[in-house]
Every structure is written in structure tokens, then in C-alpha cells.
Amino acid sequence: MTRWLITGAGGVLGRELQDVLRDRRAETVALTRRDLDLTDGRAVRAAVRRHQPSVLVNCAAWTDFHSAEEREAEALRINGAAVGALARACADASVRLVHVSTDYVFDGTARRPYAEDAPVRPLSAYGRTKLVGERAAAGLVAAGGAAIVRTAWLYSRHGTDFVRAMARVERAGGRAEAVDDEWGQPTWAADAARQIVALARTGAAGVFHATSGGAASRRDLAGEVFRLLGADPGRVAPMPADRFPGAHLRPRYTVLGHAAWARAGLAPIQHWRAALEAAFPHLDLDA
């Protein structure tokens, strides 16, 4: 039986992974940052030896975009150096590693979906530190013992996110504004979690994009939330991304390609509109 170890288990994707693995009655150890300091290499090695997983999924990350700009060295310890420690521990113990990364490794200047092997050029400290993490795992990926899974624009019943925020606005009877000049792929975190579990079970190595199909702006996503709540999507007004601080550091287009899934014998995640409709009854939007 496959034994799973999740690091960063307190985050949105980590919690969704626990839900998926619990439903499948998989043996799982879930470690939050309180349980394991990933910047302590000896502690990381000890945890891998103690729990003896077959697969380690690293969901841990410094994800606060603005604070990463101000505290890049600290973000680098979590997003970069800690991944190196995990990769070494996994290599020593013959554990398969799945490391979760981000669309922010790209600069957003493309006009067609980024392939898994497209050149990377992060604009922000967050993107730079996550790229260091990818490179720290690259040796284990090349040896066939790891996969890097990039995901983006996650929403979930756990925590707070854009979908839940837009639902609150609609139910309060308000008029929303949402950016209409940035493009990405809204992704149900449960879909990403299921995709990661399926990938790990194949044993495939390489870089994969666990995002929904299609492309959307934040305004498109907000409008769809309103529509699914029975409201007029026209209540969502457009706004430019440069209204927000640090907009020049955010990639404007991070639609990702999904060709690598076929090489692993897996179908990609469904289109974002279908995924959102399927997710809606499970998002606990009244909470």
C-alpha cells in the first residue's frame, strides 16, 4: 500500500489532498509548518525516516506575494532551500517526490498557453523563489524520482479565495469590480489534488500543469460566480490590473498547456467553467 506524506498540509491544496486520500482510505501523514520546520534539514531527514512514505507531496510555500518582495531571503528559505532538503531526503530514502509550484515562474508575455518546457522568467520575488525550488528538485526529476506540478488560481471550500469573496459580494447585493486584463485558469483545488494523486501513482517524472482547461480573466470568473448564484454577471464591472500595487510584477497571461498529461497516460483537468459548476455545491459558500 502507498503511504503518503504531505508537507504544508495546513494550506488549501494540502487540505484538499488529505480529503482525497481520506476518501480513498490511503495511509497518510499530514505535517503542517508547526509539525515540521522545512528549513531544518536534519528535521526533514528525520521526518522522512520516521514516517517512511512511498510518496511525499510538498505543498509548503511562502505564498504571500507582497511580503515576498519585502522579505525575499526568508521566502527563499521556504520556497527554495527547503525544497532542496526535501529532494535530498527523498533521494536518500527512495521516496517519490511531488513538488507543487506556480504559474508565476513565467513572465506573462506569451499569447498562447505555456508548454511545460517553455522558458521561465519570473517577474517577482515569489516567482523567483519558487523557480529556485523547481531547480532544487530538478536532479531528482531527471533521475525519474520526482515530478514538479505547477498550479494556479486555486479555489476551495477551505480558507479564503476569489470565488468565495465574489460570492459574498453578490449575496450582500453589491456591485463587484474584477480585473479583465490578466488571464489564467481558475482551478478547483480538489481537481488539482486528484490530479496529483493520480500522477504520483503512475510514477511519471517531469513537469506537469495541474490547472483547469480554457482561459479566463478575473472578471470572467466573477461573472460566472454571479451567474451560478442566479445573479446578473453584468453586475461585475471591469477594472485594469494596474489599479493594484505591484501590478508590474504579476504576469498578465499565465494560461498553461497540458500536453505532459498524455505522456503520463492521464487526461488533463476539465474546463474551468465545468469545474466551477461541479465545485459549487461543495464550496460551502454560506460559511
From TrEMBL:
Belongs to the dTDP-4-dehydrorhamnose reductase family. Pathway: Carbohydrate biosynthesis; dTDP-L-rhamnose biosynthesis. This is dTDP-4-dehydrorhamnose reductase. Residues 4-281 form the RmlD-like substrate binding domain. SUPFAM superfamilies: NAD(P)-binding Rossmann-fold domains. NCBIfam families: rmlD. One of its GO terms (biological process) is dTDP-rhamnose biosynthetic process. One of its GO terms (molecular function) is dTDP-4-dehydrorhamnose reductase activity. Its EC number is 1.1.1.133. GO terms for cellular component: cytosol. It comes from the Bacteria. It is an enzyme of class 1 (oxidoreductase). Pfam families: RmlD_sub_bind. Keywords: NADP, Oxidoreductase. The gene is rfbD.
